[in-house]
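Hi all, posting the design record for the shared folder.

TITLE: backbone redesign
STEP: 1 of 1
STRUCTURE INPUT:
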């Protein structure tokens, strides 16, 4: 793994793209009618949680960019913590 933070951001982008494809295939009512998937969407795509709480809509491009950025920040924390906790070589 040469650039783990970039990989975290790519995973965030792929998660957002996956939810977008699911939403296009099933429509907005499809995911709302499935409570487990709605819960999963909130926790894997945090901008959805913020949009639902504060009652605002977000364009799909911003959802993808925000999700990639959030995953990159989380990845930065995880990789920093992993580096500190790993035994010295």
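Okay, here is what came back for every position:
SEQUENCE:
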């Amino acid at each position: 793994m040469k650039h783990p933070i970039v990989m975290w951001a790519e995973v965030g982008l792929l998660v957002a793209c996956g939810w977008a494809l699911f939403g296009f295939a099933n429509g907005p009512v499809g995911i709302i009618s499935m409570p487990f998937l709605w819960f999963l969407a909130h926790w894997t795509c945090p901008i959805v949680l913020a949009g639902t709480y504060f009652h605002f809509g977000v364009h799909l491009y911003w959802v993808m960019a925000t999700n990639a950025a959030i995953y990159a920040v989380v990845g930065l924390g995880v990789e920093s913590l992993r580096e500190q906790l790993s035994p010295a070589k």
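COMMENT: The chain has a mean pLDDT of 87.
Let me know if anyone wants the other runs.
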